[in-house]
């Protein structure tokens, strides 16, 4: 019960890494606002409140933080996990698709930090975990918007961590950088493309994809008080891909 008494808001909580993180947090004693564009599959319980949130919309962030305070009376943890990609070469990428990736992956993290921090300060402190990617450290072809946005998340995390430290150090900010993870989205794509799956596992030094539970465990550590002296860090969970 490493999060007993804590209240968390997780974005992109209806699928993949966000869903695994939400489940792990509840299992560790947290009460969680599970925020997503689509919350149809999420059930309400004493510890879990689904909330419809588009992370790119500032007014919806104001409502989401208010919902957390209404439901549970405090906010201790924010996991900025919602993210999207726009595959394809730069010369074929529309400005609209570029901006959509930036709006969700980068504006969404900025807005989450901006609106969660005052609530965390009133709760005595907190931990913010931003889900970036190993593609925030190294690039790959046909993923320019995604790589640029995740590189932005990595440095936004460090900038926010320094600000929070200068403001008294009660709020920590860290990023998690997953490699290829067996999420529904990636897993389905790779089941239809065994050659790509073989390429990816071949490029990953441990020879397999990661699991959503392995990423959730890294998020849990940074969210918990055990990481009390850890801020501004970038925790890589990629089976050695970027080593
Ligand atoms: P996923 O597609 O399984 O889940 C993403 C969730 O985010 C979905 O439920 C979706 O509805 C939600 N979402 C999308 N846009 C949103 C918005 N505007 N507002 C609120 N919710 C929104 O994805 P995943 O693979 O679990 O990825 C989660 C995070 O991890 C993303 O930031 C992704 O970039 C990152 N990541 C994933 C991998 C991987 O291999 N799967 C690797 C590195 C990083």
From TrEMBL:
Gene3D superfamilies xrefs: NAD(P)-binding Rossmann-like Domain (3.40.50.720)
SUPFAM superfamilies listed in its UniProt record: NAD(P)-binding Rossmann-fold domains
A GO term for molecular function: glucose 1-dehydrogenase [NAD(P)+] activity
Claim: DNA damage is one of the keywords in the record: no
Keywords recorded for this protein, A-Z: Oxidoreductase
Keyword Cell membrane tagged: no
EC number: 1.1.1.47
Matches recorded under InterPro entries: NAD(P)-bd_dom_sf, Sc_DH/Rdtase_CS, SDR_fam
Family of the protein in this entry: Belongs to the short-chain dehydrogenases/reductases (SDR) family.
Protein's name in the database: Glucose 1-dehydrogenase
């Amino acid at each position: 019960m490493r999060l007993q008494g804590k209240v968390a808001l997780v974005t992109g909580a209806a699928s993949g890494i966000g869903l695994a993180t939400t489940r792990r947090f509840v299992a560790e004693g947290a009460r969680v606002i599970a925020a997503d564009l689509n919350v149809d599959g999420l059930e309400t319980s004493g510890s879990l409140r689904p909330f419809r949130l588009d992370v790119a919309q500032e007014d919806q962030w104001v409502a989401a933080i208010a919902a957390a305070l209404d439901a549970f009376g405090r906010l201790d943890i924010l996991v900025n996990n919602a993210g999207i990609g726009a595959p394809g070469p730069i010369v074929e990428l529309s400005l609209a698709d570029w901006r959509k990736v930036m709006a969700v992956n980068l504006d969404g993290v900025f807005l989450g930090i901006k609106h969660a921090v005052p609530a965390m300060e009133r709760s005595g402190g907190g931990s913010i975990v931003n889900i970036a990617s190993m593609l925030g450290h190294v690039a790959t072809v046909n993923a320019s918007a995604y790589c640029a946005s995740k590189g932005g998340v990595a440095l936004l995390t460090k900038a926010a961590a320094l600000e929070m430290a200068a403001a008294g150090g009660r709020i920590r900010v860290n990023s998690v950088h997953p490699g290829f993870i067996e999420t529904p989205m990636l897993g389905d794509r790779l089941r239809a493309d065994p050659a790509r799956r073989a390429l990816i596992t071949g490029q990953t030094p441990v020879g397999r994809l990661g699991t959503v539970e392995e990423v959730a465990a890294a998020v849990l550590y940074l969210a918990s008080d055990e990481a009390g002296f850890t801020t501004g860090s970038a925790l890589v969970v990629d089976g050695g891909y970027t080593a």
